[in-house]
Design brief:
The protein is built from four helices and five strands. The protein is an alpha+beta fold. The N and C termini lie far apart (82 Å).
Length: 189
């Protein structure tokens, strides 16, 4: 048998040749170039008919309704009529915020009316043993830093406002650490 001998027709009526191939005629691509004729495989089904496979680049991809609508709709800015009023004021440029222009800030000492001390617990969401241990580790680190700040203060080094706040919270941190140790001991083993 010659390889060019037709032995049947596939599902689209194209000739199936003796080498079990179907020749797809060349087509034109969207950019204008031409695809070559392609030989694709054909299989004979149980009922004696032939089935060929379509190349992947010719399979049309699925488009949703929204994609089809967007393709057909005009490209405009929503709410823009295209006409600018003649007397419309131009948008002004915002001046830089003064807070970003901080110049050598002078420390005026402690405030006349100190704010009330924050007495709420830092956090009470840790429930598992790992979470409790992690929270305890963080609190121990804070306490260590507070002890270092207390030593600096006792040596006569002037502390800033944040450091003084940390010193005031030492009792709260210590109480929370003690509470977490009790909760950890109460967890089932």
């Amino acid at each position: 048998r010659s390889t060019m001998e037709i032995i049947g027709r596939d599902q689209n009526g194209r000739a199936v040749y003796a080498d079990r191939c179907v020749v797809l005629p060349g087509t034109r691509r969207p950019d204008g170039t031409r695809r070559k004729d392609r030989r694709i495989r054909a299989e004979q089904l149980a009922d004696g008919s032939w089935k060929s496979f379509v190349p992947q680049d010719e399979v049309q991809s699925y488009e949703t309704r929204a994609v089809r609508q967007n393709r057909t709709r005009e490209r405009t800015i929503p709410g823009y009529s295209g006409v600018q009023p003649q007397n419309a004021p131009r948008p002004k440029k915002e001046a830089p915020k003064k807070s970003s222009l901080v110049v050598n800030k002078v420390d005026k000492g402690p405030p006349l009316h100190p704010e009330p001390e924050d007495t709420r617990p830092l956090k009470e969401t840790a429930e598992t043993e790992d979470e409790l241990r992690k929270r305890m580790k963080n609190l121990r680190k804070k306490l260590k830093h507070i002890v270092e700040l207390a030593e600096k203060a006792s040596e006569g080094i002037v502390l800033d406002a944040d450091q003084q706040d940390k010193l005031r919270r030492a009792d709260i941190v210590q109480a929370e650490l003690t509470e977490l140790e009790i909760r950890l001991a109460a967890l089932p083993v």
